């Protein structure tokens, strides 16, 4: 039986059963796959997914972008010999039968329990909060992190701006 491995802890990696990397074209495609994998096979509302990933665009453009991203995921799963994406009119789910996920599962796609669910929800909430930051803020944070690393300073020890601290998602 064909299978693939999705690694989320320690960086994103997606590979087929032979270990060959499966490339997803965009960062949002990778996030969508991670989100569906951490949802433990439960169907997710298309409207919610479109708003989460493309909330800065109009509703029609967000739905179209979700459709394109789902097509990219289907193509990659076909390369691995799997048909793991379950798409209905209003929902999307990932069938974890042939997908081994390292985060939040026991290695067979089953959730490990409350601690794994909490980690998954924090990951998803953090990404959603990052999407709500002012345009350019994420680039500025990454640039500051890279400059700090070059100088030997950890970016996590720098004080955060008041705007960043007051974000409702981190409360």
Explain what this protein looks like in three dimensions.
By secondary structure, the protein is of the alpha+beta class. Helices cover 46% and strands 12% of the residues. The protein has helices at 27-38, 46-54, 59-79, 114-132, 137-150, 162-165, and strands at residues 4-7, 13-16, 44-45, 85-87, 91-94, 99-101. The protein has a three-stranded mixed beta sheet with strand order 2-1-6, with helices on one face. Strand 4 and strand 5 form a beta hairpin. The longest helix has 21 residues, at 59-79. The radius of gyration is 17 Å and the shape is globular. 20% of the residues are buried. The model is unreliable at 153-171 (pLDDT under 50).
SSE pattern? EEHEHHEEEHHH
- Could you say which overall geometry the principal axes of the C-alpha atoms support? globular
N- to C-terminal distance: 45 Å
Number of E-state strands: 6
Specify the oligomeric state: single chain
Low-confidence parts: 153-171
Helix/strand-derived category reads alpha+beta
Helix content: 40-55%
């Amino acid at each position: 039986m064909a299978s693939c491995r999705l690694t989320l802890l320690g960086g994103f990696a997606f590979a087929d059963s032979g270990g060959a990397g499966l490339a997803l074209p965009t960062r949002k495609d990778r996030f969508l796959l991670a989100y569906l994998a951490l949802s433990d096979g439960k169907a997710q509302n298309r409207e919610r997914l479109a708003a989460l990933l493309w909330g800065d665009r109009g509703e029609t453009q967000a739905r179209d972008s979700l459709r394109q991203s789902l097509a990219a995921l289907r193509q990659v799963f076909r390369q691995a010999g799997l048909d793991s994406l379950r798409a209905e009119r209003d929902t999307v789910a990932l069938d974890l039968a042939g997908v081994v996920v390292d985060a939040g599962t026991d290695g067979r796609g089953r959730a490990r329990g409350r601690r794994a669910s909490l980690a998954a929800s924090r990951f998803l909430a953090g990404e959603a909060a990052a999407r709500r930051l002012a345009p350019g803020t994420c680039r500025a944070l990454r640039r500051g992190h890279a400059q700090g690393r070059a100088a030997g300073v950890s970016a996590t020890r720098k004080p955060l701006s008041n705007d960043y601290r007051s974000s409702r998602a981190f409360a």
